[in-house]
């Protein structure tokens, strides 16, 4: 649905993005993740045709964006980093105006706007001037204008920026609901956000793709050897010796010891799950396991590792 082929964009001698290649398949919900200045906004502007690449090709639904800008814009709904709102218009008149520009047939405009007002919880403010709305409402109006033509593809630049926690939850849920029938690409510098709502994450840094995978896949590929955290009721020394005999155990680190309990972090050399073996070893010796869990890397840790490694 969206394809970037070795795309570069330079601003004078400054690099916006360099040699960027990735694809987004129909129906996917993909997150573009990166720190400030990584090139997220540039990438989204290239996809929507607001910028021309200095090198390479951007294809949307098989059409080259720079060759077929109007056709591509018909397929897209775009929420830019600053939504293009007219402060002196009411919510309803603004959405009707955008619907007209987006070539929604005249007879359908009223119904379409009603549906959007309903879906985005804007019905009660439909008669208010946009300039008088709170930031959360304005963001929702921005999202509504992106959806007005019921586009196949949605491009959202930092859709939750500036919202309060409740509004963030609402907008995230809305995006998930919208995603089913559409292809969605959104940008964010918030890690939990993309891991929560996106099926696939493309991490960019300094204009380049440095990783792309599912949130779980990214964590797994970088996790290296699995780690287990274990709390046992028993003497630390003996427990450590027992752990050392479990096949696959590589490193054992005592993290805490108090009141007859000890907490260990155990590194395994194999990709096999060694928790069962640990259980039998402790049960055999009569030391109850109070807690045992895989220490998974969060997306945040993966992201930091990737960016730092670069
Ligand atoms: N119009 C411009 N002129 C010059 N440099 C620009 C322009 N727009 C972006 N840049 C530079 O290109 C790089 C990528 O910027 P971009 O806005 O795409 O990043 P971003 O990931 O969206 O960051 P942010 O989250 O801060 O918006 C940055 O170094 C930025 O300073």
From TrEMBL:
One of its GO terms (molecular function) is ATP binding. It comes from the Bacteria. Keywords: ATP-binding, Nucleotide-binding, Transport. The keyword Iron-sulfur does not apply. SMART domains: AAA (SM00382). Residues 2-231 form the ABC transporter domain. The keyword Metal-binding does not apply. Belongs to the ABC transporter superfamily. This is ABC transporter-like protein. The lineage of its organism: Bacteria, Bacillati, Bacillota, Clostridia, Neomoorellales.
């Amino acid at each position: 649905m969206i394809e970037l082929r070795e795309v570069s964009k330079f601003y004078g001698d400054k690099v916006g993005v360099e040699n960027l290649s990735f694809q987004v398949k129909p129906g996917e919900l993909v997150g573009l993740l990166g720190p400030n200045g990584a090139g997220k906004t540039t990438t989204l502007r290239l996809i929507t045709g607001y910028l021309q690449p200095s090198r390479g090709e951007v294809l949307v639904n098989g059409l080259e964006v720079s060759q077929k800008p109007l056709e591509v814009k018909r397929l897209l709904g775009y929420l830019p980093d600053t939504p293009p709102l007219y402060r002196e218009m009411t919510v309803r008149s603004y959405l009707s105006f955008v619907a007209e520009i987006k070539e929604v047939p005249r007879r359908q405009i009223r119904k379409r706007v009603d549906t959007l007002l309903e879906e985005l919880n804007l019905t009660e403010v439909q008669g208010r001037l946009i300039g008088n709305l709170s930031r959360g409402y304005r963001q929702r109006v921005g999202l509504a204008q992106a959806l007005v033509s019921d586009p196949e593809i949605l491009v959202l630049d930092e859709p939750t920026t500036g919202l309060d926690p409740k509004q963030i939850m609402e907008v995230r849920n809305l995006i998930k609901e919208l995603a089913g029938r559409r292809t969605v690409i959104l940008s964010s510098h918030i890690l939990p956000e993309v891991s929560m709502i996106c099926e696939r994450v493309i991490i960019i840094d300094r204009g380049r793709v440095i990783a792309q995978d599912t949130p779980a896949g990214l964590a797994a590929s970088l996790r290296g050897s699995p780690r287990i955290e274990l709390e046992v009721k028993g003497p630390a020394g003996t427990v450590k010796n027992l752990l050392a005999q479990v096949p696959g155990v590589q490193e054992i680190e005592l993290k805490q010891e108090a009141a007859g309990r000890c907490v260990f972090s155990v590194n395994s050399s194999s990709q096999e799950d060694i928790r069962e073996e640990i259980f039998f070893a402790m049960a055999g010796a009569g030391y109850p396991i109070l807690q045992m869990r895989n220490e998974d890397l969060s997306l945040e840790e993966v992201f930091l590792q990737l960016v730092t490694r670069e």
